[in-house]
Each structure stands twice: as structure tokens, then as C-alpha cells.
Amino acid sequence: MPKCKPPESLHRAALLTAGALLLISTGTLQAPAQSREQRPPAFTEAQVQRGKSIYQKNCQDCHGSTLDNGEFGGAPLKGLYFRQHWGSGDVSALFGYVNTLMPPYRPGQLSPQSYADLTAFLLSNNGYAAGAEELTPDQDAQRKMTLKK
Question: What are the tens digits of pLDDT across the range 82-102?
């Protein structure tokens, strides 16, 4: 049985790491400037399909076949729960969390492109529209993509 729910200390460590990265990248521990141009997430349908395959192999046991019916305690990855946790930020926050902490029994073991494809799959399942441009693993580019609808 996979261990799906990371310990609370892992969540705290992730938050501290994210704060340290923000401090390093900006030189200040402030929220990114609101004046920055924001746009909707960019990803392709082909990327969604690759992400679906990655999800089925690495995430489905904990989060379920419908992203919200997991047997082993994984948080819902669509609907209200998703909107409450990710809907006011940008794509880099979601990508960073998934890239750093998932899957809990071997976090960070997928390639950056695989995490980008997985993120595209999650976005698609939460009502964001695919387009002609692939989601890049570049978090600077992702910071310009808002999840606010």
C-alpha cells in the first residue's frame, strides 16, 4: 500500500523551501509584484494526454481515477478543493508543489518535462483550456500564468 499523505513536517519543509527560493530569486521575501502581466495557463492537448499517462502511473493510486476518489488519502485534484488551494495563485506554485513533493514516496523523481505535462493534465481537468503553446518547466514563465478565472 503506497504511503500517500506526506508528514506535516514535509509540508512545512516545502513551504520553507518555497520561501527561501522566493527570497533567493527576488532578493526580498515579498509576494511577486501585482503589476506583472498575467495570462491564462498555456498547455497543449498533446501535453494533457502525456500528463494523463504520467498521472495513471504515478498518482492514481492516491488520488483516484477521477482525481478525487483516491483509496489512500490523496487530496482531491479537481473541483472546489483544487480551486481553494491553487485558484488564486499562478502555475508556478502548483508546478513547484508537484515537482518538489510528489509522489510522496519518491518526490522529484520525474523529469521537469513530466511534471509540466502532469501539471497540464491537472489544469485541463480543472477547466483551463488547452491551446497551441506547451507548458514549459520554466517557473519564471509559469509565474506569468494566473490560475485566477
Answer: 999 999 999 999 999 999 999
CA 32, 102, 115, 66 torsion-angle sign: negative
Q: Is the pLDDT of residue 148 over 90?
A: yes
Query: In the CATH scheme, what is the homologous superfamily, with its name and number, of domain 41-142?
Result: Cytochrome c-like domain (1.10.760.10)
Give the percent of the chain with pLDDT over 90.
72
